[in-house]
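$ fold --in a.seq
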Amino acid sequence: MRTIVTTLGTDRVRRLRATLTVLLAAAAAGYVPFYFAPFQVFQLTMVLLYAVALSGLNLLVGFGGQISLGHGAFFAAGAYTAAVMLDRHDTGHLATLPVAAAGCFLLGLGFGVPALRLRGLYLALVTLSFAVFLPPLLKRLEPLTGGSMGLTVEKLQPPAWSGLAEDQWTYFVVLVVTTVALLLARNLLRSRVGRALLALRDNESAAEVMGVRLSLHKTLAFAWSAMFAGVAGCLYTWVIGFVSPDSFSFVLSVTLLAGLVVGGLASLYGPLLGAAFVMYVPSVSQDLDEAAPGVVFGLLIIAVMYVAPTGLAGLPGRVRGLVARRLPRPAAAPDRTPETGSPPDARPEPQAGDGPFATPGPADPAVVDAEPVGAPPRTEKE
């Protein structure tokens, strides 16, 4: 009974702590656009949309165990879907979001077919080829995509009733979309699909024996991942207001994968940390030198992988483990029984003459004067 009460109390404390954390995070997120300058608000908005893209990549790589170097292509597909709808068809901004998500989901389903027979480096090369040939293809489709010049569209404008500036309104809209996307990813991982992805990542043969359909869930992993990337690309068009093929080269795919690894694979908070890394490291190092972003980015990746092999999300646990190993452990006193005052596992030492195979002790006078077997009788002189 005491154990049940203790467990209920612990669960209640955890829920209260989680609720307080969510409330504090929501209050801080709501206060941000009114405290920082417009450019800093823009950077935070970019962090949020990159977090959406990385959360989708986390489903595929972190939890699905499949390597993808073509995530930037799905990002570009979502961005161009929104740009073409805004420029060619003059639709509203919010109407482009479900179209980009659905289109990239179907694109991911079709691209997930090669994943059924490929794995490891072979799958990575196939996905990389998709990211390589998409920018030249966008340049060739000039009547639709604008070619090398790209497309310039209107940014997301705040309504009159909001009383917010353009950067503040865009930040809040992207924040809402990012929150919904992260909650969807969290619930997806806790569902049957998420458990199937974890089983496939750990052992495909054992997962298949347990009834997990490999073809279905591998394809769905690509589809969900592509959908999140398409949503992030749509948000990118809203924030930047301009798309061009050169903005979505294969370097973007490599950068997104590096950001996820630095943030932490198979972690719910890893995409946020990785998005901040992708956004702020090149921006801060750009002030040092024009060639500094690439050098600093590479050196920081090496440093993070050395200090925190599981990413920034696993760094606090690693630090706690190191501190716990460094601290001296107090020696626990052995329990003693009240009857004898000795430890319960202690056994009394055997005394002389005890047991069937006991050896005689030197202090026993009867044994000292005893004659050995078969010895001649003693005389008086002896």
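$ fold --in b.seq
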Amino acid sequence: MGTHMSKQVERRKAIKTEKKILWDLQENSGSDFPGCDYHPPDRKNWMSGLDPQKIHVNQIVWPGTHDSATNKIGIRMISRPFAQCQSLSIYNQLVKGTRVLDIRVQEDRRVCHGILLTYSIDVVINDMKKFLSETQSEIIILEIRTEFGHQDPPEFEKYLIDQLGEFLIHQDDHVFGKTLAELLPKRVLCVWKPRTSPQTKLGSPLWSSGYLKDNWVDTDLPSTKFESNIKHLTEQQPVSGRKLFYRVENTVTPQADNPVLCVKPVTKRIHGYGRLFIAQCIARGCADRLQIYSTDFIDDDFVDSCVGYTKARIEGKA
């Protein structure tokens, strides 16, 4: 018991120290960057507002959500706080400006996060279709994977093509150098990551798992995650020469050996430092590698920071 208590005391000290590191970094270095003062007048149509004829796919800092479809996961007030990473529906996330979705499914096509379940994938698809019907030039990256420990849903590739066929941007390395206008009217780039089913081939309506990569660092220590994100980002190619999407996630996650197991209070340790991360990428010379930037509980400020830096890139200011 004494050893356990001592360990918990040390853990709390480590968390306090790491929170102070980020606070001090922001106080001393600031979080300004080219485009940081831009706020899109219509987040629902921010890509349209920046002009699809001018935006190249590889210029965008794509605002994304981590574990996107968890707004109603588990049982409210009982198991939900341990797995909920977003409070908004998929539709409302898209309206707010999210353009990358992270969806995990199990064999019966229900969305899950670990062992906890929520609604059918049909809810995600219908929310996407509603958003697409109300906009004209917004492009969505949809990543769907079979959750760890689960089996692939039967005939799931066919299901996705049947549901999204008219919107799907086919797998093609040339997409990265194109403008959004050149992709339209196709508007969904769907990356399907099965566990055992065959990977999709070049030219397929769906993209294979190798086209969206990240380096997941499973920690509840905010400065550790922040610095790991920077380190892994520096190891990537600049977006101008990259033929895949690379994601950085502005999240920290509860750990089983820590008494704080609810997502929201843990991820709050890093949540407010989205702008600082972009500023530090510039300061440390790796901003040309930043591409997909995802978070828990996405908000207006996070979207604005991504869109603002995208605008600066388009204008040649970044």
